[in-house]
């Protein structure tokens, strides 16, 4: 039986020419992307440019909202009322919807960023809020998480995600970025992990072995060697008979 998997990247997080060049090289290698929409990075200009780039390569575009924390790049948990956070997230998603609508594009999915992603994966209240703000779009997050449960309760599609360039723990959680080795540096190991996840095989975690069932694999555009990683992953997946296509 043939297998297919979505390959996604977080995009629109750069404002400089060097970063935009990385994203321009990465976009043709993925099938979907999640665009920063003002919480941790991004503005109307970067959203528009990234949306146009995705459209030119037939890549599905989703929103990448976060805690309102540009200073910490959305990687710090915040003590904030859920209602205030809902307003902030809804504003971020709405801004991107508006930009994409002007390009005759639809919003494919919602994928929270950084600390919000990790917090909502464990917090039913945060997960429910994100599922409700997703409206008619799919919700992306870790398999068997509070985000998946909230999506099912709200009757929206859930896209289970695995990471190519991050070290997992045996419990399925990502190793905190503050710990050594949390970001996998070796491109070949990244490709091996991607292939194992895509095939539903076991792979090495920081404290044992793990198997994940996912619909999409993420490559962080701000990880060193992101473009080389995408090429290596595509080659490795093709070698195992796995095709790359947007999650449906």
Mean pLDDT: 95
CATH architecture: Alpha-Beta Barrel
CATH topology name = TIM Barrel
Helix and strand content put the structural class at alpha/beta
Tell me the distance between the termini: 18 Å
Domain unit count: 1
Model description:
The strands form 2 sheets. Strands 1, 2, 3, 4, 5, 6, 9 and 10 form an 8-stranded parallel sheet that branches. A two-stranded antiparallel ribbon has the order 7-8. It is built from 8 helices and 10 strands. Helices cover 40% and strands 18% of the residues. The mean pLDDT is 95. The protein has one domain (3-244): Glycoside hydrolase/deacetylase (TIM Barrel). α5 (124-134) packs across α6 (146-154). It has 248 residues and is an alpha/beta fold.
